[in-house]
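seq as requested:
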Amino acid sequence: MHRFAFMLHPMEAGDVARKFKFAGFVPDKVVERAFALLPSMKISDITGISSPYGKAEGWFVACPLTARLIMSLPPVYVMNKIIQGGRVAEKLGAKILGLGAFTKVVGDAGITVAKNLNIPVTTGNSYTVATAIEAVREAARAMGHDVKKAAVVVLGATGSIGRVCAMILAREARDMTLVARNERKLEDLAVKILYDTGLAVKITSDIKKALRMGDIVITVTSAVDTIIEPEDLRAGAVICDVSRPRDVSQRVAEARNDVLVIEGGVVEVPGNVEFNLNFGFPPKTAYACMAETIVLALEKRYESFTLGRELLIEKVEEIAALAKKHGFRVDGFRSFGRAVPPREIEMIKLRARGNVTPAIVK
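C-alpha cells:
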C-alpha cells in the first residue's frame, strides 16, 4: 500500500466547525486563537483510492492556523507549525507529504519544510496548473470564446502558479494582460514570454482596469480577501478562480448572471475514496494539489516533485500525463461550491449576448 499525507489548514475560524462541531457555538475570534495554540495534528484517514496500477491510502494533517494568521504571524513560528505537521505525517507512516493552501505559500514554498523532514514534500502546484488550464479551455469553449481571439488576463501573474499559467496560455493567445503588484517582475516575465513565444503581452498593476478588458481571466493571487467584484467584469467573461481563499467575491454569483465563474484545480479521484472530512466538495472530489500528492504515491514517485516558486512547464505536462494514466480527471465545472450544468452555461452565454434579459439586481 502506498501511503501519503496532505496538510491543510482552516481558511477562517468557521472552517474549524466542519471537524469540531462545538466550535460553531463559540465566537470566531476565540476559536481562531484557541485552535492556533494546538499542535499540528492528524484529522482524518483517507481510504479507498484505487487505480489500474495500484492502491493508496493516507491522512489529512492540519496546521491549526487560519489563512489570516499564517500571513500575519512571524514566519518562523508558522514554519515550525508546518514542520511539526510534517513530523506527524512521518510518524503515521506517510512516504510523501503534500502542502495545501497557504502552507505552501509561506516562506520559500516548501523548500525549508522539505529540508527539515525525512520524507519528500510537494506543493501540488504543477497539477493545479494543468487542471486550471484544462478547465479554462473547456469553459471558454462552452462560452463561445476562442483563446486565440479572446482577451486573456492573468491576475497574480508573477506568482508560481500564475507565471506558468501565463507562459502556457501565451503559446496560443494573441492578446494577454499580466497583472501583479511588482512591476519589475512583470517586466521580466513579459520579456521571457516574448522570447519564448513571440507574444508581446501587456502588463499592469491596475486590477480593475485589466478585468474590464478580459474575456478569459485566471486569478491566482495570495490575497486574504476577495479582489474581484461584480462591477469589475465584462459580460460573457470566464473567470477561473484558482486561489484559496477565493479571489472572486460571492457578490459576483448574486449580481452577475452573465459571467461564468469556475473553480480551478478540482478533480475526481479514482476508486471508492473516503476522505472522512468535509471540505465542501462532493464525494471522490479533491483539489488538484491534493491529487498531485496521491498520483505521486500511486506511481511510487517519492520525491519532492514540485517545490519553490519556479514551476516548470515540463513538470506540469508530466504530472498531467501521470494523473490521466491513473484515472484522475477534471470534474466538470464548479462555481462557489456547486456544480454548473451545461444548460446553465448556455443561459449565461445567452444573457451575455443580450438574447436573454439579465436579472435585475438591486
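The longest strand covers residues 41-51.
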